[in-house]
Amino acid sequence: MLGAIALAASWAFGSTPSMVVGVGLVLAGVFARLWARRAKGSIDIERRLLPGDRLEGGDVRIVVRVRRTRQLVGGTIALRQRLGSIDEGLRMHGLQAEIAFTGLPRGRHRLGPLEVTLSDPLGLERVEDRFDDGLSVLIRPRIPTLRSLFSSLGARESGAARSTFRRPSGFEIHAIRDYAPGEPLRGVHWPSTARRGRLMVKELDDAPRDDLVVVLDQDPDGCAGPAGNSSFDAAVRAAGALALAHALWGRRVVIVGSSPSFDAVRVSSAGHDWDVALDALASVMPVVGARVVGPLRASAGPLAHAREIIVVTGLPELAVEPLLDLTSRGRSAALVAVAAQTFVGRPRERSQPALLRAVAQGIPVAVVSAESTIEEALAGGLTRSLSA
Asked: What is the reported pTM?
């Protein structure tokens, strides 16, 4: 259009320079249009995630390689990529580029379509394309390594003696029945035999028992704060730190959520089991209606076979009563209360009747807040202050 206007002006006024300008603009427009037609489908894109530990707050790098299927005269290639809530763009220099994302929160993030824009050398025409291979990126939480643990100190400081008895894994008595001829005598249940006056034998059932169960409360009513720096993210880190600490001490640990949709994860070492646990902790999210009372009151599941239970919750007032019931039945219990209000800038409540009641009954208590690190909160200092 500009070229046509310049040519019309040159004809009207008899201006040779205007004619040169008009012809140049027309030729530039024709060149740009022909370049754009040839540019369509002229490249293949390969997108690859660089290996490495993908931890919250860290970097995720994506390599983009371009292969030309058709030669073009000049031009530029611009990329735009979205990962989760972060959008990055750059202009390629050469046929390979690296896109870096920083500060990603814990969770599973979808890798959006890669938007590719080809521009002609004069910047008059653009060709846009999208490449999507349906990838997602799992960002794991940063789990601290604990040097000391409140639950090994709190009960003794509160004046309660903690039982060292641990039920072994293996077979337990499932039923008592009459002796059948030919059965080995080592299976005889002598108390029942003496009581009934005839041989009675034990039927055994395989019932492995876990040393410790860590319960993560997924109730959104106890969560506050932005993604990546929320009280639930702190609860996930605390649950992971407790599980890792006990696994490093040679104990068998099970991580369960308050939602039935969360599959229990067993951790017996810091190897493959821990990798599976990290993936589970990376993707766990709050679930509406997932009250922590549910798994604590359940008569079946991992908690039915565990001797010790640690609950991580933002609603400790709901967990104290079930934990007291468990301790009355010979279980050991501990409580990690997450002060959700501190993750939105409000001060922590210093006097909480539910926590004071738990401490008075010999349940070790730790309080996780935005004002301290996970290591400091789980070391036992807050338990001592609550006991005082």
From this structure: 0.74
